[in-house]
Amino acid sequence: MAKKIDPLNKKQYGAVSAMLTVSDIPTAVSFYQKAFGFSKRAVMNGPDGKPIHAELTLRGTTLMLGPENPALGKRTAKTIGASPASLFLYVEDVDRVVSKALSSGATSKGPVMDIVLGRSLRHHRGSGRVRMDGRYA
Length: 137
Description:
Blueprint: E1 18-22, H1 25-36, E2 39-45, E3 51-58, E4 61-67, H2 77-80, E5 87-90, H3 94-103, E6 107-108, E7 113-114, E8 119-126, E9 129-136
Parallel strand pairs: 1-4, 5-9
Antiparallel strand pairs: 2-3, 3-4, 6-8, 7-8, 8-9
Helix pairs in contact: 1-3
């Protein structure tokens, strides 16, 4: 009897996974691991041996990384000069995570602060992407 395949691959993926276009997949993988504690699930190489796709996981969430490919409309935030997306990373200790991100190569965009929505936020930039760390107060 043939093994039944789950077409949604629910064991590895939620309903939505973010995909970021980055200029250097190995550098981005290393940054996300060091700065935020992501685990590397897989890195897939193309015929030329260069990475064409990476998957990272954190607390049941998958983050995919891919290279810039103008022919397919995939450009990095650095190339565009801005990012049309933000990632909210919920953590228990924003100050500790931001400090770790900064020591891993991120650049501060402002102070950690409590805001009216009851969250502490910190904007920082690393690997050409703008990220936010937050927690509910």
